[in-house]
Design a protein that fits this description.
This protein has 475 residues and is an alpha+beta fold. It has helices at residues 6-10, 56-59, 111-115, 125-147, 206-216, 252-273, 275-290, 301-310, 318-326, 329-332, 348-359, 409-418, 427-431, 447-455; strands at residues 18-29, 33-37, 45-48, 67-76, 84-95, 151-152, 158-159, 171-172, 199-201, 218-226, 239-248, 314-317, 363-369, 385-393, 397-404, 440-446. An 8-stranded mixed beta sheet has the order 6-10-11-16-15-14-13-12, with helices on both faces. The chain has a 5-stranded mixed β-barrel with strand order 1-2-3-5-4. Helix 4 (125-147) packs across helix 6 (252-273), helix 4 (125-147) packs across helix 14 (447-455) and helix 6 packs antiparallel against helix 8. The chain binds adenosine-5'-triphosphate (ATP) and manganese (II) ion. The site of adenosine-5'-triphosphate (ATP) has 16 residues, from strand 11, strand 15, strand 16 and helix 14.
């Protein structure tokens, strides 16, 4: 490979060395200046063509969207805006782009429009930046756990257990949908199906993750997760990526400490490594915020990220949070849409009040009522609450959900019976509580919610390359 990355050239000294770059044309001005981008950085390299040397037929094909290979001298730029530029000696067209038809014109497109063009939107500044930040965060997550002795455990994507209760599941089947085998009673006979039983796409790798932790000590999963929830919100996808660490010998406090250190560390990594992309996203958000009234404007992106990295998260119990909400102005003035009382599942408006209005920082809530949480959470001595923890972020709401796990065999079985969780599909999970059980804890971080937070994007559909949402699986 003899061509160089744009990112590399922009940082190189202009010693008139001959270089080759390959990339896509962003703009072509005055039949002379090509802004070329190859995805290695948000910045374009300026290519100056000599129109006397370059055949007219080639120049005509240099249009926005076309793909070029350019060879020329890397020299100091005389124009403002860039330190170096390439004086082209040869321009080869690798791929033409019909300027009449190319959807990405050199102007601002709406995010909605770009969702319809998800096959091309990575070529915009905004999506290039988001995808590079997404990669950096993913890398930082693996690095974080690897540095601390966690093993990456690959939990299954196809699962027979639907006991998690985290949401509606997608069925996985090879049965003929028109004429499936039937039981005598007339129901679809899944014993005839590929796995000899009914199977689904996983909603969480946690239960298998626990099996790993109870042997390897510290594990994490980082995989795709599927929820057929028909909720068209800016925070839910049908297919998203989740990071789920699971730790033997951790209690709920160790769990909170890890969660806080973990998100801070990966955000710090993005701040260090993605300075140019974040600076661009910062400006982008600032423009967007200008359209809102002063009082509703969010903190500028870089300030917000620095703030999260520098400040301790507020930790309090669910019960304390309910007291704050009951005493709050919006509650007294009946401004909340949903009622507040002990026992409710906090709505997004409640979480946002606590995070954005009351504490003005990330919040970790613990000690949730057992009836609104999953069966596997450790029961507290009060008999009413469980050792759950949700990490709530400004603008996002819940970014992490976790708990200390119930490690007592009898308590776990009793709770499963109370919650009508069938034991037969989970015998293997229960056995870990019979053979060398121990205190352990873990949590799940929705990767796209983290990317949303770090990039400042309001809609989760814009932080994953090809979003899957109700009625939408194009591309
Ligand atoms: P929410 O109340 O926001 O729907 P949840 O309680 O269903 O979240 P968990 O089951 O605890 O979430 O999942 C762990 C994490 O996965 C959440 O904290 C969130 O970051 C993320 N998450 C959950 N559902 C989705 C989704 N549909 N799309 C993207 N991320 C999600
Ligand atoms: Mn949910």
């Amino acid at each position: 490979m003899t061509h160089r990355k744009v990112a590399e050239l922009l940082a190189a000294a202009p010693t008139s060395q001959t270089v080759t770059v390959k990339g896509w044309v962003r703009t072509f001005r005055s039949n002379r200046f090509i802004a070329l981008n190859d995805g290695s950085t948000i910045h374009n390299v300026q290519v100056v063509v000599d129109f006397e040397q370059t055949p007219e037929a080639v120049l005509k094909r240099v249009t926005t969207g076309a793909c070029l290979a350019v060879t020329g001298k890397l020299v100091a730029s005389v124009g403002s805006g860039q330190a170096v530029e390439i004086q082209a000696e040869s321009v080869a067209i690798l791929g033409d782009s019909d300027p009449e038809k190319f959807p990405l014109q050199p102007k601002k497109h709406s995010l909605e429009f770009l969702r319809e063009k998800a096959h091309l939107r990575p070529r915009t500044n905004t999506f290039g930046a988001i995808l590079r930040v997404r990669h950096a965060l993913s890398f930082a997550i693996h690095q974080y756990f690897n540095d601390r002795g966690f093993y990456n455990l690959h939990t299954p994507i196809i699962t027979a257990s639907d006991a998690e209760g985290a949401g509606q599941m997608f069925r996985v089947t090879t049965l003929d949908p028109v004429n499936p085998p039937r039981t005598e009673a007339g129901a679809v006979d899944y014993r005839e199906d590929f796995f000899g039983r009914s199977t689904n796409l996983t909603v969480s790798g946690q239960l298998e993750g626990e099996l790993g932790a109870l042997a390897l000590g510290l594990i994490y999963t980082f995989g795709p997760t599927f929820r057929a929830e028909n909720s068209n919100t800016p925070r839910h996808l049908a297919e998203f990526w989740m990071i789920e660490p699971e730790m033997a010998f951790y209690d709920i406090h160790d769990n909170m400490d890890l969660a806080e250190d973990f998100v801070k560390t990966v955000i710090r990594y993005a701040l260090d490594r993605c300075a140019d992309d974040l600076a661009f996203l910062h400006k982008r958000l600032e423009e967007e915020e200008k359209t809102k009234p002063q009082a509703e404007r969010a903190l500028p992106l870089l300030e917000k990220l620095q703030f999260v990295v520098d400040n301790a998260f507020e930790r309090l119990t669910y019960t304390e949070a309910i007291d704050i909400l009951l005493k709050s102005k919006p509650h007294k003035e009946k401004k909340f849409q949903f009622p507040v009382e002990w026992g409710i599942d906090l709505q997004s408006e409640h979480e946002r009040y606590l995070v954005e209005k009351h504490f003005k920082k990330p919040v970790i809530l613990t000690g949730y009522p057992k009836d609104i949480k999953a069966f596997y959470m450790k029961q507290n001595p009060d008999g009413k609450t469980v050792a759950a923890m949700d990490v709530l972020f400004p603008g996002i709401g819940e970014i992490i959900g976790g708990s200390q796990r119930e490690d007592d065999y009898d308590k776990l079985r009793t709770r499963m019976a109370e919650m009508h969780v069938p034991e037969d599909g989970l015998w293997w999970y229960l056995e870990t509580r019979q053979f060398g059980t121990c205190p352990h804890a873990g949590f799940g971080l929705g990767f796209e919610r983290l990317v949303q937070f770090v990039t400042g994007m309001g809609n989760i559909r814009d932080v994953i390359p090809f979003p899957r949402t109700p009625k939408n699986a194009e591309f």
